[in-house]
Amino acid sequence: MKKIITISINKNEKNRRIRAWKEFFGIVVLVFLLSGYMAHATTFDAAADFSTTNNPNGVWSYGWSSTLTSAFNVYPYNGKIIPGKNLDLWVDPGHIASYCPNVLHNATAGTITFSSARWKPGQLSFHPGSNGEYSHVRWTALDAGIFDIDAIFTGIDFLYGTTTDVHVLHNGISLLDGLINGFDKKSLFASTILVRKNDIIDFAVGYGSNKNYYNDSTALSVTIISVPEPCTLLLVGLGGLLIKITGDSYLF
Description:
This protein is α+β, with helices and mostly antiparallel strands. It has 2 domains: 14-40 and 231-248; 43-227, Sandwich (Jelly Rolls), CATH 2.60.120. 19% of the residues lie in helices and 38% in strands. It has helices at 11-39, 231-248; strands spanning 43-45, 60-65, 73-74, 77-80, 87-91, 102-106, 112-114, 117-119, 124-127, 134-140, 145-155, 163-170, 173-181, 186-195, 200-206, 218-227. The two termini are 30 Å apart.
């Protein structure tokens, strides 16, 4: 004859287990939602977001200033620097010498050589003016938040060598002041900063210590990525709650 074994669970214990399971699955759902939130950080890329038709272009704008922190003048004209070269150009026709100051972009899948400079596929560059004008690529914050900013300035004049001064500014306050002296020479910037809505981050290039604008093409690579600030603490808190539930409520 088979022996039947029965396990008795009192009502309070059963209810406690049910509540624990509900809390556990609630945490699982929250973690998945949080993971999705973290995965959708917004990325802004100066070269990839470049516009040949709009200035300002969303968060980005292109322009020049007489001194590093003086009034910002938006480039009003866009076109090609030379027909057939496929280098997209932003410039101010009322304030130029030899198409400078400017912002240029190679939107093609091939390398473009013009004069003594060379642009890689998708590369963005800017050039100072003859009277020491600074050329700017500007980012304006749509919302307050924390952002990771990475910028690389690179000399791209392969014949004579770029000689420029380069800068990153937050609302006119310098975060980086560097020099480019030579072809493929670089100045790097990486930082995580807190911004408010409508704050401005400027990336600027001047004509350098030799104080002439010849052969000063300077490539600019910039990515700005939003950081979802509450996520880490929330995950830690959820992990602690899960340990408490599994430890105190006897799920199994």
